[in-house]
């Protein structure tokens, strides 16, 4: 199930026939293109800067193997991601960077609050009730979707599924310290006005959640449609091409969405060059639907597989965008005093039908195998972090919060447990030990814990346990659950103790879909294949 795009399923513009009983929605009004005006900062820069700028770039569903850093890359590494790679070369590569969750909404909540999303009940990706109802008719083969209609009475309206008002976002903290705070791109933390980015600490917001990259019939676009994925079929029928500035009217972007967000980020950096700013650039790429510009597609003629070529062209556009952002910082003289963080919300998705996106790891987005929760995770801050560092202890998305707050010389919010820590002392060798001895992930009864180098996953569909010693088996090939029941019991105790400190989900899980661990959705299901339900 393409969980990150569930917002799109509930967009008012989702009018076309939905797969397997999903309901239609009323029309979204998308007006003509609007020229954005970003609020201008001071004309002159203060002689002494006490606060660094902070640029947080989050890709959507980027696979661990999509970057050419460390000899990876799509299409056998033939599509260089030079600009994104430069952040690791010129800063620090967190070799064991973990996501806050295996789907985008809870993961983004972890990034922006510095806390496990389960601490405040943000356990499930927001989804309209009709999607849960339709799960039973999603035909994947031997194992199909399931729904839980008895839980609908306990659900809440889709538009009210958002980041609780009691949570304090990174933007709110930085705004309180005098930062001009900017959000561009995906949001996915609530659809009602009270959840909008400008209500959660952002001074300005350019929203593109749920937007296609270009209209399907646009001559500038090359599309790859996945007939084996029911969600993908629905997206092509229903997703609008739109953007929205500061809660205003929806409008048609003038160009390919990845390039458009980059254009606007460059403008926003220029407008704020003389004051401290926090830029949260949440690209939609390379999330489905797979759609590239014809120019990027034509530049990759050496790739013969059409689906791979479109996806690779999307990665090319993403890397170009990151490069233009870094170049703008350089042109404005801001490189030295800007903390740039790059990551992805979760791992690459199996419903792409591309088997190599997370190699060498098993699993996909929607699983707690390393392929679902291990992510590229880079930081560059030339004035503070030495170049070329590889930090090998496990770190998490929620560390971004504490690291950015410390960089801004701000205080962490009082009266709440912050799960993240400032990573800079660890990177520079000033802090001993690991930032985290344990990390946890939870999606209903499917749960995981990493304690030291041991990792346990438990599920009830199928009823199974997976235990791995990541110190000798980092790609999770040898399940030790049957031979080390003592270790299983120990890690289950850690899970139980952690769960006792977490909140009940804010809304119930209404449906589940099967995810085959070692095979893409394009491949037929077989009885012997390992799987989980999400």
Q: Would you write up a description of this structure?
A:
β16 and β17 form a beta hairpin. This protein has helices at residues 6-9, 74-77, 82-89, 104-113, 129-134, 170-176, 230-238, 257-271, 294-298, 306-331, 370-373, 399-407, 424-427, 485-499; strands at 53-59, 92-94, 97-98, 146-147, 180-185, 204-207, 221-224, 243-245, 250-251, 277-282, 290-293, 338-344, 377-380, 389-391, 395-396, 438-443, 446-451, 454-460, 463-469, 511-512, 514-516, 531-533. The chain is of the alpha/beta class. It is globular and about 65 Å long. The model is unreliable at 5-26 (pLDDT under 50). It contains 14 helices and 22 strands.
CA radius of gyration: 22 Å
Give, in spatial order, the strands making up the sheet with the most strands.
Answer: 9-8-6-5-10-1-12-13-2-14
Classify the helix fraction into a percent range. Answer: 10-25%
Structural class: alpha/beta
Task: Identify the overall geometry.
Answer: globular
* Percentage of β-strand residues: 15-25%
**Low-confidence residue ranges:** 5-26
Mean pLDDT level: 93
Strand element count: 22
The total of helices stands at 14
Largest sheet: number of strands, sense, barrel closure: 10 strands, mixed
Query: In whole angstroms, how far apart are the ends?
Result: 8 Å
Structure, briefly:
The chain has 14 helices and 22 strands.
Keywords:
ten-stranded mixed beta sheet; four-stranded antiparallel beta sheet; 17% strand; alpha/beta; 534 residues
């Amino acid at each position: 199930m393409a969980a990150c795009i569930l917002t799109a399923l509930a967009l008012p513009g989702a009018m076309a026939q939905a797969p397997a009983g999903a309901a239609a929605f009323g029309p979204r009004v998308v007006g003509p293109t609007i020229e954005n005006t970003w609020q201008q900062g001071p004309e002159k820069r203060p002689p002494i800067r006490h606060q660094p700028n902070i640029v947080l770039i989050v890709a959507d569903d980027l696979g661990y193997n999509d970057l050419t850093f460390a000899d990876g890359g799509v299409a056998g590494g033939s599509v260089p991601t030079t600009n994104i790679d430069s952040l690791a070369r010129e800063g620090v590569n967190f070799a064991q960077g973990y996501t806050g969750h295996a789907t985008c909404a809870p993961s983004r909540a972890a990034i922006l609050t510095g806390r496990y999303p389960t601490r405040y009940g943000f356990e499930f990706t927001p989804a309209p009730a009709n999607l849960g109802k339709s799960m039973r008719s999603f035909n994947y083969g031997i194992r199909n979707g399931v729904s839980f209609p008895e839980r609908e009475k306990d659900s809440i309206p889709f538009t009210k599924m958002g980041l609780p008002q009691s949570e304090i976002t990174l933007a709110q903290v930085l705004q309180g310290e005098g930062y001009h705070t900017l959000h561009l791109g995906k949001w996915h933390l609530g659809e009602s006005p009270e959840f909008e980015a400008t209500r959660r600490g952002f001074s300005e917001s350019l929203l593109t959640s749920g937007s296609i990259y270009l209209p399907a019939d646009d001559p500038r676009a090359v599309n790859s449609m996945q007939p084996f994925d029911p969600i993908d079929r629905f997206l092509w029928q229903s997703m609008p091409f739109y953007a929205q500035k500061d809660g205003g009217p929806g409008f048609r972007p003038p160009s390919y969405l990845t390039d458009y967000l980059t254009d606007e980020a460059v403008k926003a950096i220029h407008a704020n060059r003389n004051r401290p700013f926090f830029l949260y650039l949440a690209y939609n790429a390379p999330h489905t639907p797979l759609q590239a510009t014809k120019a990027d597609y034509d530049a990759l003629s050496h790739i013969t597989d059409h689906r791979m070529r479109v996806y690779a062209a999307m990665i090319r556009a993403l890397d170009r965008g990151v490069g233009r952002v870094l170049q703008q910082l350089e042109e404005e003289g801001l490189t030295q005093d800007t903390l740039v963080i790059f990551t992805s919300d979760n791992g690459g998705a199996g419903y792409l039908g591309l088997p190599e996106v997370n190699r060498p790891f098993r699993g996909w987005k929607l699983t707690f195998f390393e392929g679902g929760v291990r992510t590229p995770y880079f930081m560059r801050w030339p004035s503070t972090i030495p170049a070329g560092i590889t930090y090998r202890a496990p770190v998490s998305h929620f560390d971004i919060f504490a690291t950015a707050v410390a960089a801004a010389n701000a205080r962490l919010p009082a009266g709440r447990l912050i799960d993240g820590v400032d990573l800079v002392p660890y990177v520079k060798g000033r802090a001993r030990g690991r930032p985290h001895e344990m990390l946890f992930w939870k999606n209903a009864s499917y749960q995981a814990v990493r304690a030291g180098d041991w990792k346990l996953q438990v599920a009830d569909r199928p009823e199974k346990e997976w235990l791995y010693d990541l110190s000798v088996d980092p790609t999770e090939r040898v399940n030790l659950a049957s031979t080390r029941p003592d270790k299983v019991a120990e890690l289950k105790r850690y899970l139980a103790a952690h769960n006792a400190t977490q909140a009940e989900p804010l809304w119930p899980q209404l449906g589940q879909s099967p995810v085959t661990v070692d095979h893409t959705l394009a491949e037929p299901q077989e009885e012997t294949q390992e799987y989980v339900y999400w």
